[in-house]
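[Q] Does anyone have a clean structure-token version of this?
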Amino acid sequence: MKNLLFLIALVTSCVSLYAQEPNLWQNNDGEFIETIKPILLFEKEMHDFGELIEGDKYEYVFNVKNLGSTPLILQNVKASCGCTTPEWTKEPVMPNESTDIKVIYNTKNRMGAFNKAITITSNAIEPTKRLYIKGTVIKGEIEEIEKVVPAVEQKELILEEKKEDK
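[A] Here you go.
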């Protein structure tokens, strides 16, 4: 009898540990859905770098909060091209906690306007989400280096100029 009571208490406590309060999530059609899945909330979904000098790397950090009742797992974060590199946590993000997704954009040989997507795959109610970065890469100031001509070459140049004048 004691074993049966112990087993019932154990099962009840395990079930209550996994019981989660559902949250309301509004989909793109404006409908509210009850869910216990993670819900992503971004402070910002698009970042405009403005003008960037060609050749450097620039970064922006997107902050995401888990509004759901269960841990958020960012399974993959992928950029639309090799010029953009995302960095993110592989650890679960607990309910009501936040994490950062750092995006690094390499401007080397990338002149002109750009608009890049970063695709997030997770266990959230909305399993695929996109973030965007944009801006314009401009040519930076190039320092001119004076060419020093050795004295022997200068003398030869002067002699050639005199020959041409005749």
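[Q] Thanks! Anything notable?
[A] Residues 2-18 form the longest helix (17 residues).
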